[in-house]
Amino acid sequence: MEFVFIRHGQGEHVLNLPKSLHTSDPALTEEGIIQAKKLKKQFPLLQTDVIVSSPMRRTLQTVQIWSEGIKCQKIVSPLVSPRMFPQNPEWQTLPCDEILTKQKVKDDFTDIYLEEEQSNEWWLKGINTLTDKEFKGIAEGFLKWCKQMGNKRIYIVSHDGTITSYKQFITGQDLTRNDFPKETGFLKVNF
Description:
Pfam families: His_Phos_1 (PF00300). With 191 residues, the chain is an alpha/beta fold.
């Protein structure tokens, strides 16, 4: 099975660093919208495709723009929400990385299915500050859940630290922040 991890388009939270990291619920910028539109040519979607998105406005907007006009399956999961990389127990989740509530996702993104079988715990706190050991358990469960869908390819729209954490888990390589994908950058992994 092929997993294609795609980083969301440019978000408002990166425009005026480090101050902008304290922006709550940042949306895509104009550049981010352009980047999301380019995904249509780079990764043309079919109705049989599945996209799993982080419950963040910038990832959900990326999915909506990219999948416009295609009735593929779109799912929101907190198991691909923002994740700090590398982990530091002294760090806390910044406002730009606080996940949307289930109700906010339902209200604002009506064409995207809300994955409610996954524990409410992850919808409340996300995976941002999990230890590497805790994350490994989450990653195993998430990838198993994806495989059960039976699709040959699953797209996952997420965040730089999350994508790098999953890549490190899947490949066993030691990675650094230098391995982060750029905006709408991607990583293909067979698992």
